[in-house]
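Quick one - inputs below.
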Amino acid sequence: MPSQTTTPTLQVCRDCGGGAPVDAHFCPQCTKILSIGRHGDYFSFLGLARKLNFEPAELEQRFRTLSRQFHPDYFYNATPAERRASLERSSYLNDAYRTLKQPIARVDYLLQLEGFVARSPEEATKQVPPALLEEVFALNEELDEIRDLRASGAPVEEWKARLERARGPIEHKRDVHEAQLQELSARWDALLDARAGIVDRRPVLEALRDRVLERNYINNLLAGIEKELTTSA
Amino acid sequence: MSKVVGIDLGTTNSLVAYAKDGVPTVIRDRSGDALVPSIVSAAPDGTIYVGREAQRRLLTDAAHTVYSVKRFMGKGLDDVRDEASLLPFRVTGEAGGVVRIGLGDRELPPPDISAFILRDLKRRAEAFFAEQGEVDNEVDRAVITVPAYFNDAQRTATRDAGRIAGLDVMRIINEPTAASLAYGLDKRHTGLIAVYDFGGGTFDISILRVEDGVFQVLATGGDTHLGGDDIDLLLMHRVLAEVGWTQSAERIQEIRKAVIQAKWDLSDGEVAELNGKRFTRAEFDSLIRPIVDRTLEPCRQAIVDAGLEASQIDEVVLVGGSTRIPLVRRLVGELFGRTPHSELNPDEVVALGAAVQADILVTGSRELLLLDVTPLSLGIETLGGVMSKIIMRNSTIPATGSEMFTTGADNQTAVDIHVLQGERELVSDNRSLARFKLRGIPPMPAGLARVQVEFQIDANGILSVKAHELRTDVEQTIEVKPSYGLTDEEVERMLLESFEHAEADFAARLLIEARNEAETVILATEKSMRAPDFADIVRAELPEGQRQRIESALVDLKAVMEGEDRELIHEKTHTLNEATRLLAEVMMNRSVQAALSGRNVNDV
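Output:
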């Protein structure tokens, strides 16, 4: 995995040709807004460490401060190059803010950044994660029975109650996952603070990736049950 | 320096405002009227009338008069077929193409009609700046507002209208956001604000967080086809059901005028008259309740989208004429659990906000900043007619999104892309924005090409697309065919045509003003001559032959008044004015004396 944290790259100001640190927004030499480079990431763009837990207010504050610096409103009278740079930078800021604001999207983004996105979303929903085999097997059996019950003309209340009950174990599993994600996130942040190497970080990232895949699968299961409940109402 | 303005281009009324030193003011005409009815009418000789004059023509020549054109902006014929029945003007166009509206003997796309209204506002502002003694009174740049829930096609159509009217549209901003800006100015609000904007043709709800002068929209929702017009239609149906459905266009407009009056009366009073019958507030409320209810669901959704609960909203602001309806105020108050604000005139607050935004753009002032969102998700068509979302709704704009495409056949050099806007699963349930053809892909085996298409929504909420093939780094050419919009060439052509018409439009306006003035003087003179003491005054106080001079000046003016010669009308008006000056003074003195002595002037 290439690590972007150890070797800071330079970006070049298109206006004066001077160099600027990768996460600078304005050229240190000519003070012009910099055209957005291909380097950096959402965290560094906002001046945040690559952590999974941070104060929401801090993100909001940074978002507002940066918006104030390069929103297109303030470059209406500027050169076309500066206007383009302001549009690019504002768009990137908004995308970064939106992604990091949501805890789930934040984990997804971190995994992608660290090169730990293994499977496509389509694959992830089709293949049952090993840790969920037992629950999924039990649920499918129960769903089959409920469908038979419905087909045999059982009262709505009866099979609906069973559907509701079937949801219980899956919801419990989801809560367990949420707690695990929380715990892993805290461990990731601690490793980052301790400047741990990739050998220590890899297992945490792999665990995070598996939990995320499982969580997506669980959410799909729950959505499936919900659909059964509403469409048959 | 030429001038910049903020324009609220409304369904029913439009208005223009400007800001000086950050303080916005609405521009009024001489009689103090700020509202220009969004109505355009074509006389048989091709003269175009806008505003009050066009509104009068609705009752005499409805077939050549267009109103509520905003409802047709960015629409296809299929979208509007149902509602065209009660409208006096023609609504045509090709199936699957942009709608066209009949104005006189011309068939014009909606932006062209809106451009007439914008030109009128532009002239109104220019006349105002000239009166203020500004050296350069030209208005060439504007911020124009649109409903927050307008899609890309509707926004683009609005920008096109501005360009056709000869305005550089600096920015398209959302009406509720503009309103919040006007409200936030003097009060330094901080906190969570809900703006409920219920106008003539559209409904919007926006939830904002205001902090450090940043007005950040968290979520927005609405219905671009729900407004006071729908309430009027309900009432019209009720009357037509009583008087019979086959009525002349002019009679229908009379009915429309009457139901609007009844609606207004019921905003203040408990009882109004409708078709000669008693019509109570309670009847009105139960009739319109379904329409008002339709505004509440988007409100609830927006609150959820913003990640909030209704009780967390600190303030609720009402915008748009339809919020004068008591039932609307009551239901909105109940939904949010607090009394809504309405200190500012709900008709004017949007234009004021637009003027503030225009001022920010020109001066580069960083005191305030609007951060708006895109109201609808943007996506592309994928296999099976399903929409795949690329930029989610309520994303802060500007925003970007990208998608990778590949080829399905060997040596395929082009890929078709269908861009959509909306929240539904199926392509057919969403709005088609444009179809692109990516060309110039280097020939290679199927599935090997990697074309990255980047979608950019700018601060106006308007989309642009670029693409390049990653393996060969070839930049793609994109042909954009907007599904319901005008091509750049069409806008260009209309702009040129409008220059040809502009001169005629301006002359027509001056002529109307001259006729109005003449009419005022004639009416005043005839009234004096009917006064009981007229003969007495002529005998006792006027010089020999003055009566004949007045009478002949009157006949002269009447003779030229219906003509086209504006100068001549002016001249004859002046003559009559001079001839009656002494008469007017004497009558004035007598009435003052009569008043002082406590006697009626008629008894003198």
